[in-house]
Design goal:
The chain is mostly beta strands. The chain is built from no helices and 15 strands. The chain has a four-stranded antiparallel sheet, with no helix packed on it. A four-stranded antiparallel sheet has the order 8-10-13-12, with no helix packed on it. A four-stranded mixed sheet has the order 9-15-14-11, with no helix packed on it. Strand 14 and strand 15 form a beta hairpin.
Length: 208
């Protein structure tokens, strides 16, 4: 924005300083060719807005001079910073507990991935953690290329081969600049098949 500073008085106007202050002063800058102004002359000041935060940005431009009535002249500056278009990943649920599962059986759960941003989202799926071998995942839909508002579904299976607790994580690596890797904790317990246990109620059997 171009501003003109004019000397409408009857003597030379000496501009002392031109500065920007206030809440979002870092979002504004200025250049000028102002120093001493003869009567009825002008100088130019250019104010530039480069938002550093999203939403309303405000600051104050202050011009000091030898004007006895207005030694400090203030101009309010404002502008709106828009969000940078980007992909944003969202996944539900945020964690999965498969509970107890018999050895060599399989329990399945689904995870829904959504692109809540405004640019295409690309997701790569993997499993990590000490118990990752007890889990496997399958993608139902094209998670690798998701338009804005698109969703895809991932099926995660738990198939324990040893008894005890198993933990791992489903990792969603993407081009979301704020969350390049989203982890969904996985847990479950492997249980052995019940076995029959015969016992006698008496240790002596008589035949009559």
């Amino acid at each position: 924005m171009l501003l003109a500073i004019a000397n409408t008085g009857s003597a030379q106007l000496d501009v002392g300083s031109i500065s920007i202050g206030g809440t979002n002063s870092a979002s504004f800058s200025q250049t000028n060719d102002c120093s001493s102004l003869a009567v009825f002359s002008i100088c130019n000041l250019t104010a530039t807005f480069s938002p550093t935060v999203e939403g309303v940005n405000v600051a104050t431009l202050t011009i000091t001079s030898n004007d006895p009535d207005t030694p400090s002249y203030e101009i309010s500056l404002s502008g709106s910073g828009l969000a940078i278009p980007k992909p944003t990943i969202s996944a539900s649920p945020s964690a999965i507990n498969f509970g107890s599962t018999l050895l060599d059986d399989t329990e399945s759960r689904t995870v829904t991935i959504e692109n809540i941003g405004s640019q295409p989202l690309a997701v790569t799926l993997s499993l990590s953690g000490v118990g990752a071998s007890s889990f496997f995942q399958m993608s139902d839909g094209n998670c690798s290329a998701m338009a804005a508002s698109a969703t895809c579904t991932v099926t995660v299976n738990f198939s324990p081969t040893v008894a005890g607790n198993h933990v791992a994580a489903l990792e969603l690596a993407s081009n979301d600049p704020d969350t390049p890797t989203l982890q969904i904790p996985l847990s479950g317990t492997g249980e052995e098949d019940p076995t029959p246990d015969i016992s006698s109620v008496a240790n002596n059997i008589g035949i009559w």
